Amino acid sequence: MKRVIEGSHAVAEAVRLAGVQVISAYPITPQTHIVELLSEYCASGIMDARFLRVESEHSALAALIGAQSCGVRTFTATSSQGLALMHELLHWTSGARLPIVMAEVNRALAPGWNIWTDQTDSLAQRDTGWIQLYCEDGQEVLDSMLQAYRLAERVYLPVMVVLDAFYLSHTYEPVDVPAEADVDRFLPRYEPRFQVDTENPCAFGQLVPPGFYMKMRQNIAMAMDEALVRFDQIQEEFYGIFQRRYGPVEAISCNDAEIILVTSGTATSTCRLVLRKLRDRGEKVGILKMKLFRPFPVAMVRKATSRAKKIAVIDRNFSFGASGIFAQELRAALCNTPGRPPVFGYIAGIGGLDITMELLEEIYWKTKEAAYPENESVWMGV
Amino acid sequence: MELDTKDDEYMYSGHVGCPGCGAAIAMRFTLKALGAKTIVVLPACCWSIIAGPYPQSTLKVPVIHSAFETGGAVASGVRAALDVKGDTETTVVTWAGDGGTFDIGFQALSGAVERNEDFIYVCYDNEAYMNTGVQRSSSTPYGAWTTTTPGQDWKKMRKKNIVEALVAHRIPYAATANIAFPEDLVRKVQKAKALKGSKFIHVYASCPTGWRIPSEMSVKIARMAVQTNIFPLYEVENGNKYTINYKPKEYLVREYFKLQGRFRHLTDRDLDQIQEMVNEDWEVLLRKAAERV
């Protein structure tokens, strides 16, 4: 049924539909609407889940590590400082192979205090072994959440579903909230392959000598590789039931595009309008929307960009001393391909600054005019 | 007094604790009291090593090893999962050292007991970061040498009174226990198991390695800690009902201090001062207990 709801509530509806059993969270703007609605669902009996109102984000994830180890489906949500505080346990979650799902509302890191959108918080967690899915609108948020549980529980890795602060978390849009029966067909009850059991006492996460440790880390790497394949299959199954699909990446008008704009999150929607406008003027432009960031879909990126002359990456994030993080990943993905196109890096929308149509058009023309990028990163709108 | 436990053992032989390790004795008796339906949450501490490396485990109950500061939080999650699965039988016990309890894990512990999560938190206290090589914690007693309080820089601050901090949370049950008094320890663990809500047991666990004592002195020194009033045995119900469980012999603290290398540098004057501190703490405890009479 289509309902007009905000992005945060799209997350909460998905958590309800997924039949999550233990929720643990700590308040931080702009994530709060998610857990407020879930609190109401738990209090009123709409959801049959335990809600742990813990004293920090660190404890929020620690509690889920305990709960998920006992074989139940879990959820938490956070932003910015909260995610940074969880950092240690992000590694722990993937190391323990726990399929925890988290909604992460992108927010700038302090100082100074800034509650608006910025992807540096989640992208800084790229080496923690979490799968990361970036979303463009409310529908994609809800759908990605459901897919996240399927994917996590298939490969035994945690998944972070990422959405922009305010532009997505607090924006009301029509969202098709599926029926429980349909969701049950797509996402069956969680049947853990291993769990803490007093009938079969085992030690979890104990001291591990180097040889075993390295093998365990390689297993995580292999699970990440598998996630890429499984995500495609899961999306196809999802399409079979709900007639919606997103792909690890979405290549829009890339077949004949000379310049491809690479986007993620809500900036993609604005970019779609820019694309239409430029195409009307005969410009050969395409968009590559990045949804899956970890595992990074190298082959799909190479395929989508194989005919392009130039690539312009729009990064709402920055790795100080290097460049925009998506741009880094694009460059790395393309570096071993013959005749690779130059990658232009543009930094835009940091700390919640609007990424307007005008700004994206300017990025397009700048890219078209230059033969090669003069700098790794061009800061736009400052 | 006879030990009120079955002959069941939940610790296999072959743990990798040091000879005379008080923490190993504490675990053995605690698990005897708890039985097989127990899940142990084990934040980083000596026991992270004592339990043995993959693929072995010295415990016959499930163990969730966890990050240093997460003892209270991980146990909360385990309890929540058991609750939603309808398992009311299994006891969740966090087993943490003094570092993981007094210092880095204090926030998560305070949060968990404020929520009155239904679990037992056992802190086995060896009065420093022993696993990493004897660094001071806020449980290290006044006067002690550690590798981070060397020479004349011996610890000049008093040991944090962790039980009183927990009592201030008004939890159903908080108690001290000691490896030299296993009957008392077992009774308290069993009492805690039978109660709902958050229970805290502070177990004195001597450490021959870090205290610079012969391993065969481990239990004797633990006993002296009670006999000298340095570590009184008592319990507190619902944050206000105090019961002192052992009438001390009132031995002088210097007898306890003289046996341990970690206090070797202390002068007679220092020891007199420490005696006064111990007397003062004991008077405070007596007053609290007497108020109930």
Describe this structure in words.
- The complex is a heterodimer of chains A (about 375) and B (about 290).
- Chain A is of the alpha/beta class and about 375 residues long.
- Chain A is about 40% helix and about 20% strand.
- Chain A has two domains: about 1-240, Rossmann fold; about 250-380, Rossmann fold.
- In chain A, the strands form three sheets. In chain A, strands 3-2-4-5-7-6-13 form a seven-stranded mixed sheet, with helices on both faces.
- In chain A, helix 12 (about 355-370) links the parallel strand 15 (about 345) and strand 16 (about 380).
- The relative contact order of chain A is 0.12.
- Chain B has eleven helices and eight strands.
- Chain B is globular.
- Chain B starts with about 20 loop residues before the first helix and ends with a helix.
- The interface between A and B is large, with 43 and 45 residues.
- Strand 9 (about 205) of chain A pairs parallel with strand 2 of chain B.
Give a summary of the structure in a few sentences.
The complex is a heterodimer of chains A (382) and B (293). Chain A has 382 residues and is α/β, with parallel strands linked by helices. Helices cover 42% and strands 19% of the residues of chain A.
